[in-house]
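Amino acid chain
________________
===
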Amino acid sequence: MSVSSRPLNGLSRLDAEDRSPYQRLSQRMLDISGDRGVLKDVIREGAGELVTPDASVLVKYSGYLEHMDKPFDSNCFRKTPRLMKLGEDITLWGMELGLLSMRRGELARFLFKPTYAYGTLGCPPLIPPNTTVLFEIELLDFLDSAESDKFCALSAEQQSQFPLQKVLKVAATEREFGNYLFRQNRFYDAKVRYKRALLLLHRRTAAPEEQHLVETAKLLVFLNLSFTYLRLERPAVALRYGEQALIIDQKNAKALFRCGQACLLMTEYQKARDFLVRAQREQPFNHDINNELKKLASYYRDYMDKEREMCHRMFAPGDNGSTVGEN
C-alpha cells in the first residue's frame, strides 16, 4: 500500500525523505497501546458503543507489508465475512486492541509493531522477521456474546431478578446471532439461537404496560423460526410458528406469507391460497407474494390434471367393454 510522502509535523524535506513510508505515516497516528506498538488512523468514523471484550465481530480487513500494494492477507473477497470471537479467532494482539477501540461502521488504518503482530520470527515465507505491518479494518458489526451466554446460563428465577430491558437486550442478541447464522446457511444453528431467544421471552412475566414490548420481540422470533423451518424442509413446524406470529398480529403479511409457503409445501392448496390471498390483501404489490400465488396456481393446475387423469384411468372402459370394477 502506498503512503503519502509529504513532510509532517514540521519535519524538513530531508528528514522526511530519510524516513520510511510507515515511519512517516506513524507521525500522524494515534497511539492506542501506550507504547506506540499499535497506532491508529480513523478513515471513517463509526457510531454507537465501543466493541466489548469477548465480543464476536464481523469485520473486513486487509494486511499490507511496507512497499507492497497488494495485501498479504485479506478477507475482502468473501461475500459474507466470518463472525470472529475476540480472544479465540483473532490471533494478532494488535488487531484485538485495535478492534476494542472501534465502533460499528468505523473504517480505520492501523500500524502494528512486531510485538503486536508476527513477532521477532515473522511468519515465513510471507512475513519477514521483526516486521511492522499495516492493516485496514472495517467494523461491520459486533455482538456481545459473553453477556448473552452468562445470562442464558442463569436459572429462570435468577433471570427474573433483572429488569425487562436486560431480558429484551439478551433476546435481541440471540436473535442477531441467529440471523447471522441463517445468512451463512447454518439453519440448524440459527434455529438453536432463535429458540434460546424465545425461551427467554416466554419465561418473562411483564407488567401490563410493558407486555407489548415482549410481544413485539416474540413476533420477530416467531417469523425467524417459521422461515428457518421452511429452509429445514419442515413445513408443518414452520406453519405452527407462523400461526403463533398471527396470534400476535393477525394482519402481518410476512407471517401470512410464511404460512402460505408452508401449506403449499404440504400440498394443502386451499389453505395456502387463503393465507396468500390475505397476505396479498395487506401488501398488494409484494413481488414474492404475487409470485407464490402464481406458483400455487401452477401446482394446483398440475394437481387437478393428475386427478382427472387418475379418474379417467379408473373409469375408462376395459378391453372387453366393461368398466373397471364391474363383475
User: Anything to note?
Assistant: The beta strands are 30-31, 38-44, 47-50, 56-65, 73-74, 84-85, 103-104, 107-112, 133-143. Residues 2-11, 321-327 have pLDDT under 50 and may be disordered. Residues 287-315 form the longest helix (29 residues).
